[in-house]
From TrEMBL:
UniProtKB keywords: 2Fe-2S, Iron, Iron-sulfur, Metal-binding
Recorded superkingdom: Bacteria
Gene Ontology molecular-function annotations: 2 iron, 2 sulfur cluster binding; metal ion binding; oxidoreductase activity
Stretches assigned to the 2Fe-2S ferredoxin-type domain: 6-56
Residue stretches making up the [2Fe-2S]-binding domain: 74-145
Annotated protein name in UniProt: 2Fe-2S iron-sulfur cluster binding domain-containing protein
Organism: Streptomyces boluensis
Length: 152
């Protein structure tokens, strides 16, 4: 089995895995990093949204060989020690989560959006299109606006 080496949450890791194994399986099953959730496995729901070299991506749709030498960040790598990321703080203040299943992906998508767009419009926020079966979209919008005012 080939050795796959990449960086995740600031740490260099090497795992034995077939080149075409989706990264989500590597993260969750081989590395025990379970913040990125398995929803659809086909690049639709975005429950697994994480960052690849600082941009949002869905690791269920990327073979592990494609991230060789690159930097993967999951929700576990977002806080700075005990200090939450401003988007995480805003999420708590706005009490966004219901069941919570989609929320790691929502937060990672929001962080990536705010990197690209300082003060996103409602349409730009809705365009991230991460699915939430609990319907927390209104509070997601509010939390992103609160975070935007702080990080902008
Ligand atoms: S699990 Fe649905 S997009 Fe990755
Ligand atoms: S909070 Fe339940 S699916 Fe989004």
């Amino acid at each position: 089995m080939p050795a796959q080496t990449f960086t995740v949450n600031g740490e260099k890791v090497t795992v034995d895995a077939p080149d075409d194994l989706p990264l989500l399986w590597v993260l969750r099953d081989l590395l025990g990093i379970r913040g990125p959730k398995y929803g659809c496995g086909i690049d639709v729901c975005k429950a697994c949204t994480s960052h690849l070299d600082g941009e949002a991506f869905n690791p269920c749709a990327v073979p592990v060989a494609e991230v060789a030498g690159r930097e993967v960040t999951t929700i576990e790598g977002l806080a700075d020690g005990d200090t939450l990321h401003p988007v995480q703080e805003a999420w708590l203040e706005q009490d966004v989560a219901q069941c919570g299943y989609c929320q790691a992906g929502q937060i990672m998508a929001a962080v990536a959006l705010l990197k690209r767009t300082k003060n996103p419009t409602d349409a730009e926020i809705d365009a991230i299109a991460n699915v939430c079966r609990c319907g927390t979209y209104f509070r997601i919008r509010e939390a992103i606006k609160v975070a935007a005012a702080r990080v902008g």
